[in-house]
Amino acid sequence: MRKIFWFLVAVLFCPCSGDAAGIQLVKHGPTLSGAIWYPCEAEPTYVRPDDLGVGVDYGLVGVNDCPVAGVKLPLVIFSHGYKGWFGGHHDTAAALADAGFVVAAINHTGDNGNDTSRSDELSSFLSRPADLVRLLDFMLNDWKNREVVDPSRIGLFGFSKGGYTGLALVGAAPDFARFARGCTDASKFCEQLRSADIPVPPQDARVRAAVIAEPPSGFFTKDNLAAIRIPLQFWRAELATAGVDVDPAGTARIARSLPGKPDVHVVPAGHFAFLAPCSPQLATVAPRICTDVPADFDRSAFHREFNASVARFFREHLVPRDAAP
Question: Contact 38/115 with Cβ under 8 angstroms?
């Protein structure tokens, strides 16, 4: 039943970009599956399920597998949240593609809507950054259109547990011992934290700029965040969301602890405001992730500003001034 529920979540996400982002589905080996969005000059059309290699209608408007428009394009990789999926931020991905970026997003192995086998285990906190290293290797070495990507201009977008993933990947080695000291329950995760000699997750210096939204705060301190040497845009929700292990006080502490001069934004809403706006069908199937705090918060209007700000940030830090239109 859980798999059916999250499959419906994936199917019913409403596309919010009316532009002609190209899209390709990715399946590379047993652990790399997701999608790539990219600039495309063709006219946007309705994308049939058969064109995407799936049996369900996503209701997506774009251009399936059209030729990539441009050369030496910047690349942004996406990391979804706890039990999320590669399309959870599809509108932001499409907006970046329309702005001249290649975007690649995958399902994290064992921690996604179709496979939650490791979502609540320590191993997922170690494997998530490794997933992104594999994704970068694929995009630069094995993707059929790899020649259009400029390997010197790579960015990262991470939300919630994906925010943890992003901070770890760009240099902030998680303080597992600190988290363990506050982990007093009898859960399997706490037991693993207390009993294991935990390795440092992999880092990747190829990432040159990152947008981080709503990460869990317990793993990070001013000391380990100080290791980050790239530009950051940081987003946090001002209001708490019931049942979510990300709290406004914790994200505020991270914002204060980030090195350099991060571009910090505070949104007067709850945690799920950063997910793509929901279709009416999805709001019925998954009201928890579609119900905003406060109730009159306009997620669609916010995402128009959010997507534009994310695109501006990445253009500022990944696109040379003489290449900007």
Answer: no
Question: Torsion-angle region of residue 296: left (phi > 0), alpha (psi -120 to 50) or beta?
Answer: alpha
The total number of residues written for the chain in this structure: 325
Element spanning 5, H or E = helix 2-12
**pLDDT tens, residue by residue, 46-75:** 666 466 554 434 345 668 889 999 999 999
Q: What would the pLDDT profile of 157-187 be if each residue is shown by its tens digit?
A: 999 999 999 999 999 999 999 999 888 888 8
Confidence (pLDDT) at 323: 59
Give the model's pLDDT for residue 2.
38
Quick one: pLDDT at residue 3? 39
Q: Which fold has domain 2-319?
A: Rossmann fold (3.40.50)
Greatest Cα-to-Cα distance within the chain, rounded to the nearest angstrom: 56
108 token code pair: 């994290």
- Residue (of 39, 14, 37, 15) closest to 26 by Cα position: 37
By percentage, how much of the chain surpasses pLDDT 90? 72
Please choose, from the candidates 144, 12, 138, 142, the residue with its C-alpha nearest in 3D space to the C-alpha of residue 77: 138
Instruction: Please compute Rg for the chain using Cα positions.
Output: 19
Number of helical H runs and strand E runs in the chain: 11, 10
Q: Which residues contact 151 (CB under 8 A, 6 or more apart)?
A: 75, 140, 206
- Indicate the helix (H) or strand (E) that contains 36: strand 32-38
pLDDT at site 298: 97
What is the C-alpha separation between 39 and 149, in angstroms, rounded?
12
CB 110 within 8 A of CB 45: no
Closest CA to 284 of 3, 5, 1: 5
Q: Cα(266)–Cα(52) distance, rounded to whole angstroms?
A: 36
